[in-house]
Amino acid sequence: MIRFLLRKLAYGLVILVGINLLTFVLFFQVNTPDDMARMQLGGKRITPDAIEKWKAERGYDRPLFLNAQAQGLSQLTDTVFVDSSLRMFAFDFGQADSGRDIGSEIRRRAGPSLALALPTFVVGIGISVVLAMGLAFFRGTYLDFTGTVLSVVFMSISSLFFIVAGQFVFSRVLQLLPVSGFDPGADAWRFLVMPIAVSILARLGGEVRFYRTLFLEEIGKDYVRTARAKGLTDTVVLFRHVFRNALIPILSASVAVIPLLFMGSLVTESFFAIPGLGSYLIEAIAAQDFAIVRAMVFIGSVLYIAGLILTDISYSLADPRIRLK
Fold it and tell me: What is the sign of the dihedral through the CA atoms of 228, 233, 239 and 240?
């Protein structure tokens, strides 16, 4: 187990370095430090001295990758890329280009993002699995046909429709819930009910169809026929055997959602004006704030790699036949 974790961590470190480098290169292919200074200073008629001062305050006055004026190893280390990357791998994200502390903003916004994403993830998977198992149990019936058709219908509807429809019905017509906003106090649930419900509905159709296919595939295998031949009922076979063997692909499909638990949902947070990490990233992209964008991409990559490692570990827990080497 320890050797497996060390190997995975080494692979993850290489991936993080590559993602960090790719993010850096792509951003500065589109923007230069001078463009960033003009954007943050707020106008085209900015003096060259003001631009140079802004760059010096944020460390952008040095070369990006290679410092030809330095000597020896300093040609590589005394650059924007290496200096900012070393601090980032120590989880010191420094100051945003706008001057605010990135770490404090992430800590402040992580709470609303978790309050939205965690119930969406847990309740969404629970509902999808239960519905999919029900369709698999009543396979070949009108209930199964109706559920499959509804799943396709839900898959065909954009998540934006659910957002707009929910805001119109529950906020404008029934006036039960606020249209948008967030209150970190006791009334936070009033601002989270509709975004959570909309997020679950938007992914419900695809997940139910996927899980139903998994269960039906397991039902057709030899061990299920053997269990039935021994006299076990369909309910026992479905819940005790089929569900357990379908856990592996279910866990695999859940890995991609793990970063969203901390990073927030870009679309949902933006439409419902929830001050989470998703809206923080959207604001940073609009403002061309490279420091924030790079920090958020780095955090998302770390979370995804951690999710992959946790998924591999959960495989061995779900199926004792799997050994981590």
Answer: negative
Where exactly are the structural domains of the chain? Answer: 108-288
Quick count: other Cβ atoms within 10 Å of Cβ 59? 15
Which residues have a Cβ under 8 Å from the Cβ of 149 and sit 6 or more positions away? none
Domain with residues 108-288, CATH architecture: Orthogonal Bundle (1.10)
Decide: 36 and 46 in contact? Cβ < 8 Å. Answer: no
Between the ranges 4-8, 198-202, 222-226, 282-286, where is the mean pLDDT highest? 198-202
- pTM given for the model: 0.76
Look at the chain and count its residues: 325
pLDDT in tens, 68-90: 777 777 777 778 778 778 788 88
Q: Hey, what's the torsion of the CAs at 13, 18, 20, 25, to 10 degrees?
A: 170
Please, what sign has the CA dihedral across residues 183, 189, 195, 200? Answer: positive
pLDDT at 186 over 80: no
